[in-house]
């Protein structure tokens, strides 16, 4: 299977999975409207929550508004678990929420988020429409446009291109410049590691951020992260640290899944794909008549 076929197959799987999730109401899209969960979530962020009744201390959960507002879900962190209820609070506030959240009112847990694009969907009162647009209609439209473009190419031209392709394959010249590809990926990897690797100075009982970027310190206790601005020091222990070269809302789920270390590799791979013209220069194919 070529790259185009693989991408098409992945698109189809994604669309089918998204359609099932929308139909079963297993996931919902929410737009963050307040700053109570900063710096994890900012107003305008779009977050995806997945239906779940398995709630643990420290989980970020979405639950019905205790004031009784319909179709409104609040997203806060669980800080205490009682007999049939939870106590919650926002990461940005000191006080615990002045209400109990009953188990039956919890919709699910925060899965992942995308910064800022929530403003585009804020006017959609029906979140299922948002799910349909973002995860089904747009990907399906891209897929159909791609397939339509392929189908409209004349069969005669395709055959000629295939013959020309075979001729080129018999030669030693290659459109894919492998050494350029290796150099491009290596350069992207070095830049990614430099961007995400924090400059921390170890001092008695803690560390100081000597870099120019905010550093996120991830640890094993809720809320599982701390923010260390340039020049600031921290006296608490942590499991891992990473520069804030990406928004926290993207890094936090990766840490909770135990795959934060993949961040430089993934960003390097994406950068390499975007830089394809550097290492892949397809030759012009002159198609004659007859």
From TrEMBL:
It is found in: Membrane. Residues 11-74 form the Peptidase S26 domain. InterPro entries: LexA/Signal_pep-like_sf, Peptidase_S26, Peptidase_S26B. GO terms for molecular function: serine-type endopeptidase activity. Keywords: Membrane, Transmembrane, Transmembrane helix. GO terms for cellular component: membrane. SUPFAM superfamilies: LexA/Signal peptidase. Pfam families: Peptidase_S26. The chain crosses the membrane at residues 129-151, 178-196, 254-275. GO terms for biological process: signal peptide processing. It comes from the Archaea. The keyword Oxidoreductase does not apply. PANTHER family: SIGNAL PEPTIDASE COMPLEX CATALYTIC SUBUNIT SEC11. This is Signal sequence peptidase, putative. The lineage of its organism: Archaea, Methanobacteriati, Methanobacteriota, Archaeoglobi, Archaeoglobales.
């Amino acid at each position: 299977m070529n790259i185009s076929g693989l991408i098409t197959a992945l698109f189809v799987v994604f669309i089918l999975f998204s359609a099932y999730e929308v139909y079963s109401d297993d996931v919902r899209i929410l737009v963050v409207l307040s700053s109570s969960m900063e710096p994890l979530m900012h107003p305008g962020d779009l977050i995806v929550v997945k239906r779940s009744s398995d709630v643990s201390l420290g989980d970020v959960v979405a639950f019905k508004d205790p004031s009784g507002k319909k179709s409104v879900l609040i997203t806060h962190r669980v800080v205490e678990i009682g007999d049939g209820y939870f106590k919650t609070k926002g990461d940005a506030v000191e006080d615990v929420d002045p209400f109990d959240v009953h188990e039956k009112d919890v919709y699910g847990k925060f899965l992942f988020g995308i910064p800022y694009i929530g403003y585009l969907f804020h006017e959609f009162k029906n979140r299922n429409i948002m799910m349909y647009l973002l995860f089904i209609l747009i990907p399906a439209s891209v897929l159909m446009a791609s397939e339509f473009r392929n189908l409209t190419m004349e069969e005669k031209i395709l055959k000629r291109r295939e013959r020309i392709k075979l001729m080129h394959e018999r030669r030693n010249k290659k459109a894919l410049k492998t050494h350029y590809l290796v150099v491009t990926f290596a350069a992207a990897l070095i830049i990614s590691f430099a961007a995400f690797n924090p400059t921390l100075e170890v001092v008695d009982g803690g560390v100081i951020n000597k870099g120019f970027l905010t550093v996120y310190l991830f640890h094993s206790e809720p809320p599982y992260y701390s923010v260390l601005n340039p020049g600031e020091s921290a006296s608490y222990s942590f499991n891992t640290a990473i520069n804030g070269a990406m928004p926290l809302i993207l890094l936090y789920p990766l840490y909770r899944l135990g795959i934060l270390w993949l961040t430089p590799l993934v960003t390097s791979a994406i950068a390499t794909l975007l830089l394809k013209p550097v290492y892949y220069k397809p030759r012009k194919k002159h198609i004659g008549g007859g």
